[in-house]
């Protein structure tokens, strides 16, 4: 599936190249004075949202419904902005920024991590969540593993997902990628721990806790969330909505409604069914994350 929403340390250069390719197709209309996309969306009554089919961030469920943490926020905000309908446009994660810039859709609604590489290509809303890591371990956590340093200390076998940022976090403490078990997703990670092929599976706290809960595993459990570090500094994973660089009016109007939802507690109520808790709420800004 290419780089995932979590892929901060891997694939950044490739993403930049993709963005550069998509740039040539961007229309310059409405680029002055913050763009006119919001007015056009109100006239059309529909906004196209780019998603990457990743649970719980943005996906089509088994009933064919468009849902997820980011789309459910978008449905509320765009309705308040005078755009009552949302239309999903599924694509691979690595194609989200090029697709946005070439106007295949209007907004990226995929829980995309905000980082400087991406900020050079698009503009972001302030983040609607901040994510920490967690592990899947054997029931009772017999090796007492709570962070990446513990994996090294216990000489444990680590598994994680394809293109996950967790690969980079582990490498930062001296674990070689060649020593890791790289799996397609968190379900495969849970099975690897249950079957004893890995001592620990590393992922984001929401995806890890969701899969353990959904499977009702009797052999494995999820650890408490923790902050990952790179070069001694916390590597903050916080996601938001992406807009074309010229559409600052739409981004600013979106931010106003998002901040109201944060203040009232409505944001947490919307995302809680997808496994998010108060711990994932944040007051960070896109400006901080872009720098």
Description of the structure:
The chain is of the alpha/beta class and 291 residues long. It has two domains: 36-130 and 237-290, D-Maltodextrin-Binding Protein, domain 2; 133-234, D-Maltodextrin-Binding Protein, domain 2 (3-Layer(aba) Sandwich), CATH 3.40.190. The protein is 36% helix and 21% strand. The chain has helices at 12-23, 37-44, 69-80, 96-101, 116-119, 148-154, 166-172, 186-194, 205-215, 248-264, 266-271, 286-290; strands at residues 46-51, 59-60, 66-67, 85-90, 107-113, 123-124, 129-131, 133-138, 158-161, 181-183, 200-204, 220-222, 229-230, 233-234, 237-243. The strands form four sheets. Strands 1, 4, 5, 6, 7 and 15 form a six-stranded mixed sheet that branches. Mean pLDDT is 88; it is low at 8-30.
Mind sketching the topology for me?
Blueprint: H1 12-23, H2 37-44, E1 46-51, E2 59-60, E3 66-67, H3 69-80, E4 85-90, H4 96-101, E5 107-113, H5 116-119, E6 123-124, E7 129-131, E8 133-138, H6 148-154, E9 158-161, H7 166-172, E10 181-183, H8 186-194, E11 200-204, H9 205-215, E12 220-222, E13 229-230, E14 233-234, E15 237-243, H10 248-264, H11 266-271, H12 286-290
Parallel strand pairs: 1-4, 1-5, 9-10, 9-11
Antiparallel strand pairs: 2-3, 5-15, 6-15, 7-15, 8-11, 8-12, 13-14
């Amino acid at each position: 599936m290419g780089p995932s929403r979590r892929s901060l340390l891997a694939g950044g250069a490739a993403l930049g190249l993709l963005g550069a390719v998509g740039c040539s197709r961007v229309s310059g209309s409405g680029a002055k004075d913050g763009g006119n996309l919001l007015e056009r969306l109100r006239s059309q009554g529909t906004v196209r949202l780019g998603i990457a089919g990743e649970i719980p961030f943005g996906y089509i469920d088994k009933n064919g419904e468009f849902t997820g943490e980011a789309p459910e926020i978008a449905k509320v905000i765009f309705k308040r902005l005078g755009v009552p309908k949302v239309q999903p446009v599924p694509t691979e994660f690595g194609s989200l920024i090029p697709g946005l810039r070439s106007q295949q859709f209007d907004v990226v609604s995929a829980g995309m991590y905000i980082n400087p590489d991406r900020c050079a290509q698009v503009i972001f809303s302030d983040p609607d969540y901040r994510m920490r890591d967690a592990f899947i371990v054997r029931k009772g956590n017999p090796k007492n593993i709570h962070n990446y340093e513990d994996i090294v200390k216990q000489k444990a076998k680590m598994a994680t997902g394809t293109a996950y940022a967790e690969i980079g976090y582990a490498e930062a403490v001296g674990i070689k990628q060649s020593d890791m078990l790289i799996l397609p997703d968190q379900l495969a990670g849970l099975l690897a721990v249950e079957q004893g092929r890995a001592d620990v599976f590393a992922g984001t706290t929401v995806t890890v806790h969701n899969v353990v809960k959904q499977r009702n595993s009797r052999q494995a459990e999820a650890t408490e969330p923790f902050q990952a570090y790179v070069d001694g500094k916390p590597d903050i994973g916080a996601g938001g909505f992406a807009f074309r660089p010229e559409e600052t009016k739409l981004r600013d109007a979106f931010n106003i409604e998002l901040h109201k939802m944060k203040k009232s507690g409505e944001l947490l109520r919307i995302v809680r069914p997808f496994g998010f808790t108060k711990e994932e709420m944040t007051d960070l800004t896109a400006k901080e994350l872009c720098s």
